[in-house]
Write a structure and sequence with these properties.
The protein is an alpha+beta fold. It has one domain. Helix content is 38%, strand content 19%. A hairpin with a 2-residue loop joins strand 1 (9-12) and strand 2 (15-21). Helix 2 (53-68) packs across helix 3.
């Protein structure tokens, strides 16, 4: 099992966010639930994000930005996450598989 699959939660802006990799983010690579509706606060990743390092980083940064600031514009979040993922991969980021 990859380290990403073993991660149970992440900390964003001082708050712990439970993380799940279970494919329930239908139509998306990931979804960040703020906990204000019936769904508890959590970040749910579709298993497809595990197929590439770049996709995982892009999705993780994207959802962490949502967790840090809900009012942030979706276009900004999407563009910033793609920029961070591209540059981390360019600088040699790779997942360590155990």
């Amino acid at each position: 099992m990859s380290k990403a699959k073993q991660t149970r939660s992440i900390r964003v802006s001082g708050r712990r966010w439970p993380v799940r990799f279970n494919g329930e983010a239908k139509g998306y690579f990931a979804i960040c639930h703020d906990g204000l509706q019936a769904t508890p606060r959590q970040i749910v990743f579709n298993r497809e994000v595990l197929r590439s390092d770049r996709l995982l980083v892009d999705s993780l940064v994207h959802e962490m930005l949502h967790a840090a600031g809900w009012p942030i514009d979706e276009a900004f979040v999407d563009g910033f996450a793609k920029d961070v993922a591209r540059e981390l991969i360019r600088f040699g980021f790779k997942r360590v598989k155990k």
